[in-house]
Amino acid sequence: MNTTNPPVAVIGAGPIGLITALGLVAHGVPVVVFEAACYLSGETRAGTVLTRTLEVLDRYDALGPVLEASLRLDEIGELDRATGTSTGSVLTSALAGETRFPFVVNVPQHELEPALASVLEQRAPGALRMRHRLVDFTQHADHVVLRLSTPDGEVEVEVAYVLGCDGGRSTVRERLGVEVTGHTLEQRYVLVDLVCDLDVGNPRDYPYLAYFGDREEWMVLVRQPHCWRFVFPLAAGREAPSSDELRDKARHFIGEVDELKVLGSNVYTVHHRVASSWRRDRVFLLGDAAHLITPMWALGLNTGVLDASNLPWRLAWVHRGWAGAELLEGYEAEQRPVAVHGSGAMAEAARAVMDRRLESVAGWSDAMTRTLLGVRLGEDWSITRPPGPLRVGDRVPDLRIFGLRGPVHLHELCREEFVALHLTDARRRPHLPDGPAGLRQVIVSRWDAPHDSGLRSRAYFDPGSTVRDRFGLGDAVVLLRPDAHVAHVEPWTASSWQNVQDRYLQEVRLAR
């Protein structure tokens, strides 16, 4: 490897490791992924990818292959187990004004991982190294040396940073000596994939993601591309069910069907545990290595993707010299509250809904929550809130505006850099000079920029002031980060270009 520009090492080629690697590649950071196993996962595991994760995959140019392998759905249903009747649904179509992807998708992990790996191989050939098991590492002031066990013996590799994406039994976390606190549920969960005809021969018309709630016995039904997946709790001390018992269990919920074939099953322990520290110098923890969240409401995988959205751009800014190393401190500061209090609280609420201890409420707010679109980062973190003026930490709605050659969405506009949106009148020709590296300043106006304004290449047309009205800010300047979260908001003035430039330099820890 080129030791003059060592890569960032990702340990673990599960979904979080692969998505993190794709994020680094998208930002031009050299990366290598080390996976101990001979093959990608073939186990029956995670199955639902939420809308916010789809947005992250789109930002990393990896969405197409995932959608091809997936089944799309626009309804998250809740049913009463005893009667089989609907008790309400979350309709993701309510999000059509918020995102280009007003749906979630079902895709089993053993199909998701190859889709992600194929994109990584196209973008960074040879970056994925199977049969490379991490033994240990040694940190230095400006690099980390890994010791890896390979088919050809033990090797040492120098890398810039280490990102531990190696799951709940993380070797990286263990080598750091980081403790994990929290609890393990007495119940375990059983996941089983079954082939049965609930469409034609035995039509049921269940939503593709359906939660059967009951005080005594609940179940989650997931329509996968080629089968149905059932998830239900297993009482403490019970042995793993046999295939016959699994079929009987399924019939208990869906009734008699012509044929029911077990494809595979998995019994797993359920945790709510969080690492006491997510970073030690040049080594970071992401996904299950940092937080084990109960996988209700698809919060396990998708909470990890929020980590994979936050850290790569920070590493890219430091790698390019556009930011000070202090920028990396924001990763744990922002993501830990989301995992501990956000997703963790949501998982507890999900169990309460399934046990009929809590009623679920369907609507815009619930849809924003259940798809993880409503996450606000920072000290004033939250998962969702009623609509209102845009605030720092919010994920910006992915609204459409128009450039010189056609439509563009806000998330597309900021995917490679910070972007300052000046919501003011283009006819008044505001001064927008070139800024420091990593920052672009543009104007968004319902008045198209005149050809003699000098703003044509920096102006975006907002018919009917849709963006301005949705933001609820009036004339303002809004600074967006590459992960589509708001970094700064202030009323617009003639000196806003200088104010937002200074705020950007503070954000990336290069304040002068």
TrEMBL record:
<dbReference type="Pfam" id="PF01494">
    <property type="entry name" value="FAD_binding_3"/>
</dbReference>
<keyword id="KW-0285">Flavoprotein</keyword>
<feature type="domain" description="FAD-binding">
    <location>
        <begin position="7"/>
        <end position="339"/>
    </location>
</feature>
<dbReference type="InterPro" id="IPR050641">
    <property type="entry name" value="RIFMO-like"/>
</dbReference>
<dbReference type="InterPro" id="IPR002938">
    <property type="entry name" value="FAD-bd"/>
</dbReference>
<protein>
    <submittedName>
        <fullName>FAD-dependent monooxygenase</fullName>
    </submittedName>
</protein>
<keyword id="KW-0503">Monooxygenase</keyword>
<keyword id="KW-0274">FAD</keyword>
<dbReference type="InterPro" id="IPR036188">
    <property type="entry name" value="FAD/NAD-bd_sf"/>
</dbReference>
<keyword id="KW-0560">Oxidoreductase</keyword>
<dbReference type="GO" id="GO:0004497">
    <property type="term" value="F:monooxygenase activity"/>
</dbReference>
